[in-house]
Amino acid sequence: MNKETRIQKIQEIIAREKPFGNMEIPWEDVLVRKDVFKIPLELLVYNKYNGRILSRTQSLERQNHIIDVESSEGKAEIEELLWGSNKQRNESTLKNITDYGQQKVGIITKDGIIIDGNRRAMLLTRGKKYDYFKAVILDVTLDENPLEIEKLETTYQMGEDEKVGYNATEKYIKSKLLYKKLTQQKYSSNPNKHKPNLETIEKIAKWMGEDKSEVLKYLNTMEVMDEYLDFLEYDGIYTQLDKREDQFLNLTKWLKTFYNGETKKAGWSYSNSDVDDLKSIAFDYIRAKYEGKEFRIIAEGQKQNHFFGDREIWGSFVKFHNERIANINEPPIDYNSSDLNRHLNDRDTKFLEATIIDGKQSFLKDNIEIHEEKLYYNRASDEPQKLVDKAYDALSAIKTRHKSFSNNEVQEQMEELAKKVFSMLPQRSPGRILSHIITLLEEFDVKNVDEKDIAEIEEKTKRIQKLGYEINKQL
User: Fold this and answer.
1) Is 303 left (phi over 0), alpha (psi -120 to 50) or beta?
2) Is the alpha carbon torsion for 351, 62, 280, 219 positive or negative?
3) CA-to-CA distance for 106 and 133, rounded, in angstroms?
4) How crowded is residue 51: how many other Cβ atoms within 10 Å of its Cβ?
5) How far apart are CA 171 and CA 164, in angstroms?
6) What pTM did the predictor assign?
7) In Å, what is the CA distance from 443 to each residue of 413, 425, 433, 448?
8) pLDDT tens profile 213-225
9) CA-CA to 259 of 20 to 30 Å: which in 22, 250, 291, 424?
10) For residues 270-282, average pLDDT
């Protein structure tokens, strides 16, 4: 059914039928009382840019998949997206709407496009018990007053009652699109690129029923989300942001804190390039869906509680990550995939699998655990007993008969560890280190000396005799 036919049939209903009731709606900054009519579902057209499924339709359009909402195929596709936006809540509401009918009145344009109530209309269609939709009818089409309709739609869709069932990403995308539509500019938090229009942000906040600071947070977070998608060459595929909201909120806060200046939350003189490293590494952890404490320990809180707060720990963390991430080679993205969302999810899964070393665990997790231990050592630096106990337990756990223990790298590290221990002992007890040397010499087994090493051993024993003589002489 085309637009003109829908307009005609809806006008006939208005002229012929008795209003079901009436309600007030905000229109052009005043409350207007409008009659409510029962409109056949067949006369309605879903709004594909409905806030509930905005990330999905935007992602599809990035793949050049344009949904024709006036076709039966397009209608079915939108209904699936609306149903999938929150299946659990939709199942509950479907039972309610089937038992008791439509409780909340919707809003449509005069040509039948649903401004408020897309989900309700979908559930009525799916329930098959009712063939009509109770709605207020605007006197305009979407094309005739798009900005006022956008305002009305946002006010209703982003109200507290409706927001509960929304995908977390939608509000970020909505704020970004509203800002661009109202200012004709792309939002940027970089003052060298763009000066945020605070009046516009305040207007969006009013429409969305939020504080201005909250909308500013949405815009700043969406900017980082877009950078993440661009980093992975997923730009515009907003479905890849699912279940990652908290991580992006944390990362956005970190970048605001650390870029362009020093802060007490980092105890060293870092540069913006160090913050760039923070961002790119955080993107890898977000992609792998690290969350909670495992993610926040990267840069959250006071300097003693996170990796970025200490120069040495951060440098070691970055080196460990970059040396290993460089070895991961990923295949190109198939943007022509029939199911790009599934294709990219599979690609992200394979990325995480590629970080697993020797079939054990991801080096992403290894890196977190290693440097979390170093943070602990830093915090316990004035409690030597704790650290000595921990070091003793770690050394006791080493299996000296394991074949890897004889590796040159392991043996060199053991030598360095021994030197470290010896260098610390004289500060408190010279006698202890000499006692330890005597014990080692007493345990020395000449029978195990290889013939080719005899000359070297003789030279070193003479050196020990000389050093002992020099110590006695000085005493």
Assistant:
1) alpha
2) negative
3) 8
4) 23
5) 11
6) 0.76
7) 22, 21, 15, 11
8) 999 999 999 999 9
9) 291
10) 96
Structure tokens at 53: 């499924």
Q: With b meaning 16 or more CB within 10 Å and e meaning fewer, what string describes 356-379?
A: eeeeeebbbbbbbeebeeebeeee
DSSP labels, 128-186: -S--EEEEEE-SS-TTTSHHHHHHHHHHHHTSHHHHTTS-TTHHHHHHHHHHHHHHSS-
Rounded Cα–Cα distance for residues 314 and 284 (Å): 16
79 residue type, one letter: E
| Alpha carbon distance 159, 165 (integer Å) | 11
Position 9, amino acid: K
Dist CA 402 CA 177 (whole Å): 60
The full DSSP string for 362-426 is EHHHHHHHHHHHHHHHHHTTT-HHHHHHHHHHHHHT--TTSGGGGSHHHHHHHHHHHHHHHHHGG
Indicate the residue type of 127: G
**Tally of CB atoms within 10 A around 351:** 16
Cα 372 to Cα 380: distance, rounded to the nearest angstrom: 12
Identity at 67, one-letter amino acid code:
I
Q: Which of 365, 261, 278 is nearest to 315 (CA)?
A: 278
Which of the two residues, 147 and 417, has the higher pLDDT score? 147
Radius of gyration of the chain (CA): 33
Q: Distances in Å between the alpha carbon of 113 and those of 50, 57, 331?
A: 11, 16, 42
| Chain center to CA of 107 | 35
Query: How many whole angstroms separate alpha carbon 266 and alpha carbon 247?
Result: 20
**Distance, CA of 377 to CA of 177 (rounded, Å):** 47
DSSP 87-129: HHHHHHHHHHHHHH---S-EEE-TT-BEEE-HHHHHHHHHH-S
To the nearest 10°, report the CA torsion of 237, 240, 243, 249. Answer: -70
Q: Tell me if 317 sits within 8 A of 374, measured CB to CB.
A: no
Collect all residues with Cβ–Cβ distance below 8 Å to 396 and sequence separation of at least 6: none
Number of Cβ within 10 Å of residue 124's Cβ equals 24
Residues in the chain: 475
CB hemisphere CA count around 358 (13 angstroms) = 2
Nearest to 166, CA basis, from 18, 1, 52, 39:
52
- Written as six digits, the tokens of 234 are 């997923």
Of 132, 121, 222, the closest CA to residue 177 belongs to 222
Most distant CA pair in the chain: distance in Å? 120
